[in-house]
Amino acid sequence: MSSIAFIIFNRPAQTARVFEAIRAAQPRQLFIIADGPRPHKAGEAERCAATRAITNQIDWACEIHRNYSDVNLGCRQRVSSGISWVFEQVEDAIILEDDCLPHPTFFPFCKALLDRYRHDQRVTSISGNNFQFGNQRTAYSYYFSRYTHIWGWATWRRAWSGFDPQLAYWPRVQTSGVIKNLFAEPELADFWAARFQSILTGRDTWDYQWQLHTWLQGGLNVLPNVNLVTNIGFGADATHTHAVNRLADIPLAALDFPLRHPPYLIRDALADQATDGIVYGYTHRPKKNLQFWRNKLQSLIANH
Question: Which domain holds residue 291?
């Protein structure tokens, strides 16, 4: 079993459920990352303490590392600094936040692919998420995507190296036109550019930065053909996922072993296009049909 990094904050109920899944997996190394309470939030110090206490229930042979902040760092700094701390000590890790409940097969899936792609620079992360809602994208156990879904995922020190949560290099990347080279539609490039720009104006997150970090490496991300991790944290007390939508509590499914590996490393463009709408709310321009182009050609011939 690979090392597990468990990121917690102030929700003991969700943390207890995810911790039980970790306990069942019995990792040899467990890194626990916790943010501190916000002083203006009544009762949060008590909730943070109760959440941390859950992780004291280690009843298997395990090397425990704790990185607890006394002050509130916020989502961007706490998550990114915690993951960087993990990779100061290990070469790879499975990463779970307190609201990401995994299926038991999530752990061996990550372990197998961390080993398989350890030295393959083309692969930057492994996710437990499948947001295709029953559309089977491949006959294999997983497919490749440009998207880094992070509700239960894994990566290597080599891929995380150089990660910048402040995105200081974004203005240079923006003016270079690199992002427009990633997308066939200029509007989709602008869609993502606006999200990266929001980091510079104060958006408290780290996952957009990780997404851009992988794109600038030319990275592919592994996504399973069934959903292996479900988000149980939607609601008023969530940091970002306040409004419940179809991504909340997606049913879990078992992945069959041995894994069926795809014989090629090419992203699934159709799956990614579906993800654009399902996850990010981006609507693609309708493609002109064959009859349009036939009429266009006939018009050109007639007017030649």
Answer: 111-304
